[in-house]
Amino acid sequence: MAQLIWNGLFVGSFYALVALGYSMVYGIIKLLNFAHGDLYMLGAFSGFAMLGALGGFVPSTSLLSLFVVLVMTMLATGLGGVALERVAYRPLRGAPRLSLLITAVGASFALEYGVRIVAGPNPRVYPVRLDGTAVEVLGAKITVQQLVLMVIAAGLMVALNALVTRSRQGRAMRAIALDPKACLLMGVNVDAVISRTFFIGSALAGAAGVMSGAYYGKIDFLMGFIIGLKAFTAAVIGGIGNMKGTMLGGLVLGLLESFGTDWLGGQWRDVFAFGFLILFLTVRPTGLLGERVTERV
Amino acid sequence: MESRRLGWAGLMTALLAPFVIATPYAMNVMTSAVIFVMLAVGLNIVVGYCGLLDLGFAAFLAVGAYTGGVLATELKVPLLATVPVVIVVTVVAGVVIGGPTLRLRSDYLAIVTLGFGEIIRIVASNLDMTGGPSGIYGIPGLFGDTLSDPVVFYYTAVLIVSVAVLFAARLGRSRIGRAWRFVREDEDAAEASGIHTYRVKLAAYVAGAVWGGLAGVLFAGQLSAISPASFTFLQSALVLMAVVLGGMGSTPGVVVGAVVISLLPELLRGLADYRYFVFGVLLIVVMLLRPQGLWPHRSREPGYTAARSTPGAPGAPAKEEE
């Protein structure tokens, strides 16, 4: 029981980290960034490449070098996200939502198969593997590495929350989410703020990618698809566009999956998650912490 | 009518093609293209006419193929005999998934349909009835085992698909088709002018499901073996690509788009590794440069309706903007 809860929270914190980027972008420009999961994949691969390059200099890759790689990857995927927004999404601002979504699907394909061309179709094994001895806490086996990863995830989320609620930048983001046109009139550089939002969201996804690569040890070019779906599910459960709700949704989804796997078996895990999403949307379309959206005609 | 002449020209090309080249490989490719046209026309009802982005369309292909396949192998009946059951099952599937989700707005719907596609695929690879990951094999042909000549199959497929295309096009010009386009252009305005948007959207979704299911039966008949690997997101995305490339809502465009999408990989065999990358980039480029697709739908409706209705009659359908 305690083990199930712990596993759920651990996986859930990954989901939450990826879901935040989804939620931020959705909150600010109402775009489902379909390629978000692939930025996570991109993060895992660029982390892989950097660790490989580092391995030439440092013989034993430690937790510290992993941390350096994490930061560098966040920068790289963040820039990737900004580039994506610039090329694929910005020219279509103001176009029908459908064409934007289709562009996002195209971007997702281009990223997946672009990485496939560069890195090859076979799964890669991460050079570092975080897999340590377990400590028993309340009947659950917890490894130090799991704890470290969760602390990093939690730290990133706390930092993001502070950024959004406290800083000038965060205020601009929230203002654009409310009314982009009015922001433009009030002298907010809307394009720049949207770019930065993409940067932050993609950087978080990249961080999650490196962390999961280091933890699970195996990466492949299609790994972003399913986690993108899961992250979206998490964001919807918590209330898309709402930071705290999204984090909560990630944890809830992780717990649900952990228990679902225990009851039904691993092969039904995804069915369980998506089935729950459909069920949940019919009952509460705005999520746990989302407020009701009034449609203006 | 220009489009009618075009339709005949397309049908003649399809009918004459086996006289030009009839190697088993070519017949196989052409049959696949015809089935793909069926799929694209079905998705066009959902995405093109009604503006509901469905990212899990392969689910209905799977539902149709599995229903037909299981019935045909269990009861030893020809595939064509399973068609009524397939239609019923796909309608049920369409209502079950569309019922709760069509109240949602476009992007939620997109993800939910994507999740639905995954659910169907995972369920198919985990159930005993569907043969698990290895799928079902030894499915008898459309008319039973006796007639399994690829040329006969091809002509049957062409016949069925042309009827389906014609029917879809006529559906698009009918009263409900106009309602679909109105919902696509402005859902709130449609609701305000008395269209029951939910029911109209559900109708589009179910119609798309039936087209997809019938394509599934043809698919099962062509390959005589099906497995969950045929119904991935990739398949859904390719069908969507055909619809977008051709021009959403335009029947000739979508047919051309489907033929291009299904033949292109065969023509570009050398580029195999770059294929899907090119697809992705192409989707973006088409959306950026030609958001309406290569062969967009041109509305001739205001003139068309004006010719039929008495001038100045009240209650004439709202003018459609393209």
Automatic annotation (TrEMBL), chain A:
<dbReference type="GO" id="GO:0015188">
    <property type="term" value="F:L-isoleucine transmembrane transporter activity"/>
</dbReference>
<dbReference type="GO" id="GO:0015808">
    <property type="term" value="P:L-alanine transport"/>
</dbReference>
<feature type="transmembrane region" description="Helical">
    <location>
        <begin position="100"/>
        <end position="119"/>
    </location>
</feature>
<feature type="transmembrane region" description="Helical">
    <location>
        <begin position="147"/>
        <end position="164"/>
    </location>
</feature>
<dbReference type="InterPro" id="IPR001851">
    <property type="entry name" value="ABC_transp_permease"/>
</dbReference>
<feature type="transmembrane region" description="Helical">
    <location>
        <begin position="39"/>
        <end position="58"/>
    </location>
</feature>
<dbReference type="Pfam" id="PF02653">
    <property type="entry name" value="BPD_transp_2"/>
</dbReference>
<feature type="transmembrane region" description="Helical">
    <location>
        <begin position="221"/>
        <end position="240"/>
    </location>
</feature>
<keyword id="KW-1133">Transmembrane helix</keyword>
<dbReference type="GO" id="GO:1903806">
    <property type="term" value="P:L-isoleucine import across plasma membrane"/>
</dbReference>
<dbReference type="InterPro" id="IPR052157">
    <property type="entry name" value="BCAA_transport_permease"/>
</dbReference>
<dbReference type="GO" id="GO:0042941">
    <property type="term" value="P:D-alanine transmembrane transport"/>
</dbReference>
<protein>
    <submittedName>
        <fullName>Branched-chain amino acid ABC transporter permease</fullName>
    </submittedName>
</protein>
<dbReference type="GO" id="GO:0015192">
    <property type="term" value="F:L-phenylalanine transmembrane transporter activity"/>
</dbReference>
<feature type="transmembrane region" description="Helical">
    <location>
        <begin position="6"/>
        <end position="27"/>
    </location>
</feature>
<feature type="transmembrane region" description="Helical">
    <location>
        <begin position="271"/>
        <end position="290"/>
    </location>
</feature>
<dbReference type="GO" id="GO:0005886">
    <property type="term" value="C:plasma membrane"/>
</dbReference>
<keyword id="KW-0813">Transport</keyword>
<keyword id="KW-0997">Cell inner membrane</keyword>
<comment type="similarity">
    <text>Belongs to the binding-protein-dependent transport system permease family. LivHM subfamily.</text>
</comment>
<dbReference type="GO" id="GO:0015190">
    <property type="term" value="F:L-leucine transmembrane transporter activity"/>
</dbReference>
<dbReference type="GO" id="GO:0005304">
    <property type="term" value="F:L-valine transmembrane transporter activity"/>
</dbReference>
TrEMBL record, chain B:
<dbReference type="Pfam" id="PF02653">
    <property type="entry name" value="BPD_transp_2"/>
</dbReference>
<feature type="region of interest" description="Disordered">
    <location>
        <begin position="300"/>
        <end position="322"/>
    </location>
</feature>
<keyword id="KW-1003">Cell membrane</keyword>
<feature type="transmembrane region" description="Helical">
    <location>
        <begin position="32"/>
        <end position="50"/>
    </location>
</feature>
<dbReference type="GO" id="GO:0015658">
    <property type="term" value="F:branched-chain amino acid transmembrane transporter activity"/>
</dbReference>
<feature type="transmembrane region" description="Helical">
    <location>
        <begin position="79"/>
        <end position="99"/>
    </location>
</feature>
<keyword id="KW-1133">Transmembrane helix</keyword>
<feature type="transmembrane region" description="Helical">
    <location>
        <begin position="152"/>
        <end position="171"/>
    </location>
</feature>
<keyword id="KW-0812">Transmembrane</keyword>
<dbReference type="GO" id="GO:0005886">
    <property type="term" value="C:plasma membrane"/>
</dbReference>
<feature type="transmembrane region" description="Helical">
    <location>
        <begin position="55"/>
        <end position="73"/>
    </location>
</feature>
<feature type="transmembrane region" description="Helical">
    <location>
        <begin position="106"/>
        <end position="124"/>
    </location>
</feature>
<keyword id="KW-0472">Membrane</keyword>
<dbReference type="InterPro" id="IPR043428">
    <property type="entry name" value="LivM-like"/>
</dbReference>
<protein>
    <submittedName>
        <fullName>Branched-chain amino acid ABC transporter permease</fullName>
    </submittedName>
</protein>
<feature type="transmembrane region" description="Helical">
    <location>
        <begin position="202"/>
        <end position="225"/>
    </location>
</feature>
<feature type="transmembrane region" description="Helical">
    <location>
        <begin position="276"/>
        <end position="295"/>
    </location>
</feature>
<feature type="transmembrane region" description="Helical">
    <location>
        <begin position="237"/>
        <end position="264"/>
    </location>
</feature>
<dbReference type="InterPro" id="IPR001851">
    <property type="entry name" value="ABC_transp_permease"/>
</dbReference>
